């Protein structure tokens, strides 16, 4: 009887360990995905800022006569 209870306890412990391991793995993936999404949004914002700055710089150079120096 004691060996049967020990066997059932071991199986139950193994099941609990596997479930916890799967939960941690799935949670880790979600956090990484969210982190990647945040990185993409930051990169996109930086790209738009650079594009806007470049457009303004080109526009200003046309008014200044295209010379790259201030008068």
Explained architecture:
It comes from Streptomyces yanii. This is Secreted protein. There is one protein chain. The chain has about 70 residues and is an all-alpha fold. About 90% of the residues lie in helices and about 0% in strands. The chain is built from 1 helix and no strands. The relative contact order is 0.05. The model has no long low-confidence stretch (mean pLDDT about 80).
Measured by DSSP, the beta-strand proportion falls in under 5%
The helical percent reads over 70%
Biggest sheet, in brief? none
Structural class: mainly alpha
Instruction: Give the termini distance in whole angstroms.
Output: 98 Å
Shape call: rod-shaped
Number of helices: 1
Name the helix and strand elements from N-terminus to C-terminus, one letter apiece.
H
Indicate the radius of gyration in whole angstroms: 30 Å
Arithmetic mean pLDDT: 79
Low-confidence blocks of residues: none
Give the total of beta strands. 0
List keywords for this structure.
71 residues; mainly alpha; single chain; 1 helix
Care to give the gist of this entry?
It contains 1 helix and no strands. It is an all-alpha fold and 71 residues long.
Topology:
Layout: H1 2-64
